[in-house]
Target: HTH hxlR-type domain-containing protein
Amino acid sequence: MSLSHTDLPGSPKPNERDCQATRKILDRVADKWSLYVITTLQGGSRRFNELKREIDGISQRMLTLTLRGLERDGLVTRTVFPTIPPRVDYELTELGRTLLEPVMALVAWADKNTQAIAEAQRRFDEEPKPEQATIQGVVYQRL
Amino acid sequence: MSLSHTDLPGSPKPNERDCQATRKILDRVADKWSLYVITTLQGGSRRFNELKREIDGISQRMLTLTLRGLERDGLVTRTVFPTIPPRVDYELTELGRTLLEPVMALVAWADKNTQAIAEAQRRFDEEPKPEQATIQGVVYQRL
DNA sequence: CAGGATCCTTTCAGATACTG
DNA sequence: CAGTATCTGAAAGGATCCTG
Model:
């Protein structure tokens, strides 16, 4: 499922269409901000600025773009109330709520393994680098 | 960001440390290439170029970077065989295999809902844009 | 309040060349 | 084979200003 190269004639393409489709969905779902928006909308509908406040670090621009993408994919509904000041509510669709289950499983996994990963990182970072070598307990610096 | 708990009103930063940690993990896991590498390693250990061939569209550089990140997080092991030519095997760790379950659930979801999303996109893209308005069945172009 | 439009900087990622 | 190093164009993303 090459994205943009010339496919050689004769190259086997099992079911390239499905692969690309699945891939595109994963690209969206695997997106950092999408994930945050979805989990935040778990608690029910939110207004634009509520989302912005609850999703720490997101800019107004990225929130808009992310919401548009999710809306386009049918995962989120956008409801405009023509009041002054305007009010726009975002809510998960039925499809969006089905996505919640696998996504929350992922979040739960992350929550649970925070410690283990932090320790793995510490070990990795303390490994002797190519600039160093530890020989019989003595550290040598590469010249 | 309140991914896994509710923020009490009035408490500005409940336990930001845990949130940020979870967030970092999600950032890695939600990464496009990480997801592909993990699912590809589901079938057992792979060599570098095997991964490169099976993950279509990934560059050698991104594969290296992704593998380093996963190795650092303790999700993948890297085994070097000092042969000529060299051989390096990558394999999911125990921790990495526990990640497989939520990740595969996500992939299954994407697979299952490809059609629904494609239709939602089609509907969205056919909606009258701000440049157009449909009034009583007649389409007007904004000037 | 909820964005759209711009500008502008930073980061990402592909292509290429080189190495043990 | 399995990388590392470097360069560069493309893209992401933040900051800011403006409007219905």
Notes: Chain A touches chain B through 52 residues (CB under 8 Å). The first helix of chain A runs from residue 16 to 29. The helical segments of chain A are 16-29, 32-40, 48-54, 60-72, 94-126.
